[in-house]
Every structure is written in C-alpha cells, then in structure tokens.
Design brief:
Low-confidence stretches: none
Strand content: 15-25%
CATH topology of the largest domain: Aspartate Aminotransferase, domain 2
CATH architecture of the largest domain: 3-Layer(aba) Sandwich
Bound molecules: pyridoxal-5'-phosphate
Largest sheet: 7 strands, mixed
Strand order of the largest sheet: 2-10-9-8-5-3-4
CATH superfamily of the largest domain: Type I PLP-dependent aspartate aminotransferase-like (Major domain)
Mean pLDDT: 97
Shape: globular
Distance between the termini: 35 Å
Length: 383
Amino acid sequence: MFQEKKTLFIPGPTPVAPGLLRATSRPVINHRGPEFHELFQRVRSSLGKLFHTQGKVFILTGSGTSAMEAAVANTISPGDKVLVLVGGAFGERWAKLTEAFGAQVERLAYPWGTAVCPDRVREALAKDESIKAVFATQNESSTGVANDIEAIAKARGDHPALLVVDAVSSFGAMELDMDGWGVDVAATASQKCLMMPPGLALVAFGQRAWQAASDAKAPRFYLDLRQYDAFADIGETPFTPNVHLCFALEEAVGMLEREGQQAARDRHLLMRNMVRAGLAALGLELLVKDEKAASPTVTAVLGGDLDIPRFRRIAEDEFGCVLSGGQGQLKTTTFRIGHMGYMLPVDMVGLLAVIELALVRAGKSVEFGQGVKAAQQVLLEEV
Ligand SMILES: Cc1ncc(COP(=O)(O)O)c(C=O)c1O
C-alpha cells in the first residue's frame, strides 16, 4: 500500500496549506533587520483584529501550552486563588499549570462531554470575591465540546476576576470577541485552525490583564511578556523567533482575511454537522449529545464494542486517513475526528467513506453509503 500520502483528521496538527508550507522554505532573514520588523508589525496588527482586542498580541516560539503558560506566569502570583473550569484534559491542563505556579486552585468540574454551565461559574464567583482569575477552555479537544465563552464572561458580572481562555483548537473557527465579551487573555497555537505547522504560540492580553502582568509575582524569564512588549516596539522578539513560521503566519492570517472570519466559522460548523450526521447514520454514538455544545472542530465518538486501535490502524494503513485516539479518561473508549483548518466540507464525504470501509474491515456490519449519504444531504442543504 502506498504509504506516502496520509491525511490528518486529528485535532492538530492539521494539514498545512501549501502556500504556508512554501513560505517556510524562503531564505531566512535577519530577525533584527528592517524586513522582519515590518513583517512582525503587520502580523501583530492583523492578529489584533482576529482576537478582537485593542490589547497586546504576543508571538511566541513554542506550542500552545507555552501560550497557556505565558498566560498563567503573567497574571498569577503564588498563593492567588483561581477558578478552573475542568471538563476534559485541557481544562485539567489549566489546573495543573496554575498549581505549578503556586495558585490555590478551585476546580469547577463538569462532566466530560458536556459544556460548563455559566450559572455554576456565577455561583462559584459569588462565594469568593478574592478569586483572581477564571481559566476556561473554549474548545475542549479531548471531548469535542465547545464552551460558550461569551456566556461565561457575562456570568462573571462585576466580579473582578480575569477571564483567561484556551482558544488553542478554536481560534479561527469559533468567534472570540475578546474586548466585546470581556475576555482578558486568550491563548492559541499555529497547528490547528491556522493551517500552519506546529511551533508558534500566540497569546493576547487585554488592557486589564496587562495591568495584572505588571503586578504578577510569578517567577518567569523566557515567557516574561514584559520583555516581549519592550521588544515589540521595535518589531522584534527578545529571543530568536521562528522566522519561517512568522512568514507562514502572515500567509495564514491573509488566508483567513480573504475567506472572512464568519465564512471560516460557517465552514467549520458545516463540517461538524456533516460528520455528526454521517456518524449517526452509521449507528455510531457521539459523545456530545447536545448539538449546541458540539465542537465545530473536533468530534469524539464512543467506540462501543468496536476495536478502536484496530479500526484506526486500518483507516490509516489501508485508506490513508489518520484519526485520533481518545484522551484522558476517554482514552480507550473513544476516538476523535479533527475537522479543522485547511479542509473543505466536501472532504468530510471522503472521510465518511473511509470510516465506512474501515468499520467493515474491522468487523462491523455497515451498509455502505449510509454515512456518506447523510453527510452529502447536509452539504446539499448548504450549497
Ligand atoms: C484545547 C487545547 N488546549 C491546549 C492544547 C495544547 O497545545 P500544544 O500541544 O500545542 O501545547 C491543545 C492541543 O491539542 C488543545 O487542543
């Protein structure tokens, strides 16, 4: 079997748009020279529009977790109380990270596969004026749940806590109106909906959060955003940036601008609807039952009696489609499908055909075409 072509249907890294890959093969330039200065300023100002903030956007060399760590290190002091919304592996990551920085962490746990209820956030905050920050996950990639960040921000009301959001697997595919909603910090990464290779992280600080950055006492050096801010004035980063990924980032932002933010969101919703309809038609059980909470970028499927590792191996080795396993407490009971970034809705038709084939090869009785047909019907209603 030809093993050279594999398509990633995993929740990141995602397929890289060819134009962005080409950008990564340009000759390197001086990261302290005028060409980089101009590129850096252009990209930062475009990113401000994507985050919808008048605040500061920082470009870091690292994965999404480095942006999350920068968010924590620059807002928290040891001993601060924080409220962490935990309904999956990435909510748990916020909890571990804030604990590592010495925060007193209160976990607001909600069942994996459901969205957090904003009223519970309101109640938890009402009990404690001293909570410094709420840490939330916009798109919980381990469960395929999209949380309503606008509603969480509203639930905070007049409470002074900062709202810090992991937008790693949603940025570019879900709305995030930082200033309009009152989100103080948002973190994301290059290898998801931005269609880029892994390696860049972005973190945006609104005005209130920037004030907190100068008050925060957490020890930090590489991720001390005050240094990044000082260098940003001259179009540089304090440490050598990944110049090639900055080239690609400019192209990625251009692609999103040309498509339009709303159109990109609609495309992801359509892909989600096609995948959910196709899987349901095949009799597979979706983890997220509530349509409103279903992520536009990743869908988790309960395997039931399916031998998930074998099914995934067949999908990949025999049909060239890479699917993801489960994560955390869902590791052995679910598989996940990423439908994010450089993908078209019509790609979901091929994906469902592969899922049908792999199910049959893994020993399930499936009527060919049922999943494909359901997805096609959803697509036809939209075109
Ligand atoms: C929601 C979410 N948060 C955080 C991360 C961590 O990102 P990284 O692996 O780039 O550090 C991921 C990665 O899958 C994610 O999906």
